[in-house]
Design brief:
eight-stranded antiparallel β-sheet
Amino acid sequence: MSKFNPKEHLTFEQGAEKITQALSKAQVDFGSRIFTSRDKESIQLANMLQVQEVPEGFKKWQLPITMGPSQLFISVSKPDVKVPMHSHDEGDGIRFIMSGSVYYNGQELTAGDWMFIPAGQPYEIEVGPMGALMCYCYACCCAGRMELNHKDWVINPQLHAQARLK
C-alpha cells in the first residue's frame, strides 16, 4: 500500500526548519567549508531528511540546503511506478531527470530533460522501464512530516564508505 499523500506535507518554513534541525543534530555548518554529497556528514543528513510520504517504489530525501525561496530534493524510483495525479499548490517546481526516464503526457523525458510545474497545476508521471533518478527544486516544501528520520537509510553509510575505499 502506498504511503503517498501529496496533501500531507510541511509548509516551506517548516521544511527549512527541518533542515536547520538536521544540521544542528549533525553539528554541520555549511558556511564553514565546501561540502559534497560524498561527505560523511552529507550521508548522515540525507538519511535524517528522508521523506516517508512517497509513492510505493520511490525513495526521496531533502537536500540539507535552501537557496532563497527554494528547497531541493532527490528521488530514486523503481521501474514502472505510477505517481498519481497531484499538484503542488504552494509554489512552482522544476524536475530534472538525471538518469532513467519518466513519462509525462505521453512523452518520455530522459537524462538531461526537465519539466517546469507551475503552482497548482495537476500532473501525473509514470517511471520508465529502467527506473529514474530525479532532482527537483520547489518553491514549496514536499518533505512530508517534521520529524527527522532515524529508522531507515536512503544511503547506507557502510556501503558508501566501502565503495570509497575501492
